[in-house]
Amino acid sequence: MLPIAGSGPVERADAARNRQKILRAAAKLVATRGVESLALDEVAAAAGVGVGTVYRRYPDRGALAQALLDEQEREFQQAFISGPPPLGPGAPAEERIRAFLHAFVDRLETQGKLLMVAETETPMARFTTGAYRLHHSHLVGLISEAEPDIDAHFRADALLAPLAAAQYVYQRENGMSVEQIKAGFDQLLS
């Protein structure tokens, strides 16, 4: 089978099988023992592959955490790009911004600790992923539509800053409720 132009290299069948084994083993470890158990050597043992196989594909825990989050990130992106309003198109920009922030908080509630590993394991990882750039770009577009006279890039960064997973986990572990965090975003938007 010839690769499609621009699609990148084709993954070998054995590499694809190993990737799936690694991801299944990592997901099972996280589900049964928590994010703290996400050690690459333990993942390799649980997957039945060599440690080198894991390290070649995932050089650190952050890269492995990103891979574990990939499907949920795709679903989140699909929801705000083409899902129903107010998160998706069809609602006023102000409503879409609020819906985006609230949906992001919901995502942090279920995936915050894993997102924290993905964002903090490698310096600046949070800002260099395609996901962050898309989130930022999405907010810039909505902010520009809602308030054309302000610096939309700065406002997008300012709104995304409290959505850093480490910040969210810290707030939740110190007694702040999901409702308080969402209300805080509502206050920022008013």
UniProtKB/TrEMBL annotation:
Limits of the HTH tetR-type domain: 16-76
DNA-binding region: 39-58
Keywords associated with the record: DNA-binding
Listed GO MF terms: DNA-binding transcription factor activity; transcription cis-regulatory region binding
InterPro entries the record matches: Homeodomain-like_sf, HTH-type_TetR-like_transc_reg, HTH_TetR, Tet_transcr_reg_TetR-rel_C_sf
Name of this chain's protein: Transcriptional regulator, TetR family
Biological source species: Kibdelosporangium aridum
